[in-house]
Amino acid sequence: EIIEFPCIKISAESCEIEEVFHQYVRPKYHPVLTSFCTDLTGITQEMVCNQPYFEEVFVNFQNWLEETGACSSKSNSIFVTSGDWDLKIMLPHQCEQLGLEIPPQMKYWIDIKQTFVTATGQYPRGIIDLMNRLELNHTGRLHSGIDDCRSIVSIVKALVSKGTHPL
């Protein structure tokens, strides 16, 4: 179940952060977080208990996409992920459970790990491995959605500086 919904919009030209969306989500199906979940993500029960449910957060996110111009007909925006899990598996599962439609722009994305494979021939195991191979320092907490987004931004910047243009 999705308990954090982060997204960072960057400029395709400069790779600089333009906008940030970040909201915790109150779990509906598993309302009490397990210690495993908290240990993995750093998200505590207190952080989610007074937050809106996914349906409201998802509407907020779609409104944010509209406000930032990320889903306008003139936009060439695309999501960048580390792996396919979030947009291929987790989001569709959550939306199916709730009877929500996935916006068309969320059905396509760039897997930054695959971009790295194409550019280097090396397959990174995850964000930390990617950052190590690019000689980047990891900051924040692994598996914190917003920190992972910031790491992906750093990875995109590093790839662009090395001549690979994933966007």
Automatic annotation (TrEMBL):
Keywords of the record: Exonuclease, Hydrolase, Nuclease
InterPro entries: 3-5_Exoribonuclease, ERI-1_3'hExo-like, Ribonucl_H, RNaseH-like_sf, RNaseH_sf
Superkingdom in the source lineage: Eukaryota
Protein's UniProt name: Exonuclease domain-containing protein
A matching Pfam family: RNase_T
Molecular function, one GO term: 3'-5'-RNA exonuclease activity
Residues of the Exonuclease domain: 1-165
